[in-house]
Amino acid sequence: MANYIHVPPGSPEVPKLDVTVQDQEEQRCRDGALSLLRHLRPHWDPREVTLQLFTDGITNKLIACYVGDTMEDVVLVRIYGNKTELLVDRDEEVKSFRVLQAHGCAPQLYCTFNNGLCYEFIQGEALDPQHVCNPAIFRLIARQLAKIHAIHAHNGWIPKSNLWLKMGKYFSLIPTGFADENINKRFLSEIPSPQLLQEEMTWMKELLSSLGSPVVLCHNDLLCKNIIYNEKQGDVQFIDYEYSGYNYLAYDIGNHFNEFAGVSDVDYSLYPDRELQGQWLRSYLEAYKEYKGFGSDVTEKEVETLFIQVNQFALPPSQVYPVLRGCWPRVFIHGSQRLGTLQALIMSCLLGILGTELGSSATSAQMRRFCTP
């Protein structure tokens, strides 16, 4: 069994450029981006290049580079956050990107550089919670996710979920305390002991591993803003593959269902009801069976089985989300009613990393956001 991703033979090589883009100062950031564009778009006049900041988070800074006003040809420059390699396997991210690109599920990856990568801009609109409950759109999402899950990227090996490996990695990063007295007090009073959390992890692994959900190539972070809808073409594409890898099929769907509630202004009354889930899961199963060459007939029993699996992997919103509201990243450790303690642990782990490892990359305002109940 294996949990690594196998890039298919014949996939185009991705050049690695010896360029480091400094993102702390605007001019140095521009100079670094232009160095990349000299390789990727040598015909562009540097004086005419526009740089537009799309996102400026802790995990990444995303900058769009283009000339003219139409944005017909846009190069996206994604700069990794400082020390985020502690949490994200960047080599696996690039492999996932290449595999998805080879199967028509990702934009073109132009290059990697010392602290980031460059890729093609996808035309369309990033979705919000009100979009993902629209039947015309959620059927497209279900079909696209089924297409990814049907990808064979394990070179003949039986795929193995990397969920438990990732959880173990995050456990190894647990801080023992914080310099900030208020944060440390909350950490000691609200976060259960590592021993208890290890017991919870063992229990959860036994429960979720026994559900029979297939292990497939998953996106693992299917929040609304990672779904781009092109109304003109009538399709959707997923972006951001930092957490992609082998995982349980039902996890990926359950994680997405949680995102119906939103991120900033969370409303778990928007979590999809039984009827909507039934329609979504039937659309997914029809597409999945079609992509796997099994026809497209789906029985009520198949829908019911997947419904049970998905909701075992979904977060218990009333117990967990008040603790995690606004927290980064969307770590793929969802499942069962006793998972709240593990989610709280991951929050404390990330707070420790952000507070002690990232230094100036984590601003005081961002830290306050993570710590506000």
Automatic annotation (TrEMBL):
Coiled coil: none
Record-linked SUPFAM superfamilies: Protein kinase-like (PK-like)
Organism: Mus musculus (Mouse)
Record's keyword annotation contains Endoplasmic reticulum: no
Domain of life where this protein originates: Eukaryota
The gene coding this protein: Etnk1
One GO MF term attached to the UniProt entry: ethanolamine kinase activity
Name assigned to this protein: ethanolamine kinase
GO-annotated biological processes: glycerophospholipid biosynthetic process
Alphabetical UniProt keywords: ATP-binding, Kinase, Lipid biosynthesis, Lipid metabolism, Nucleotide-binding, Phospholipid biosynthesis, Phospholipid metabolism, Transferase
EC number: 2.7.1.82
Pfam families: Choline_kinase
